[in-house]
Amino acid sequence: xxxxxxxxxxxxxxxxxxxxxxxxxxxxxxxxxxxxxxxxxxxxxxxxxxxxxxxxxxxxxxxxxxxxxxxxxxxxxxxxxxxxxxxxxxxxxxxxxxxxxxxxxxxxxxxxxxxxxxxxxxxxxxxxxxxxxxxxxxxxxxxxxxxxxxxxxxxxxxxxxxxxxxxxxxxxxxxxxxxxxxxxxxxxxxxxxxxxxxxxx
Length: 201
Description:
201 residues
């Protein structure tokens, strides 16, 4: 009888240990799936955020030829400045990777800033051109939207990168493949470029 009780007590202890191991294993699997799904959501959010930035960059890209054509008639002596804007726009068109697109966008922002500075100082008669004023307002709105989109993108990238580096989530992230590596922030190249394109006259 004593042996039977000891045996059943040992069997109960084995069942309890087995249940605990099963519960821990299930907990780890559930945590793994939730962590993996969080990485997928953050990756998709960062791609969506970049797609939004890309839309605004495309709109700005499409706006540049109209802007250049409008100013050409007034600013005959600013051919170098106009050529720099066109060259920066063309560089945007040939950019393939995310880093190239970011760099090209920064280059276009810088050349537009120089362009507006030269035009504002030397050609005040442009203030009366309705087409130019409309393009100026469109560009100003685009720059504002770009700034907001850039902030959102960088916020999502920060969450993604942090999750990728903190323990224990980094264990899951390292096993998810090349798409789940640290993402680049959309940063401006210099302190000068940290301001919006100035389009005031």
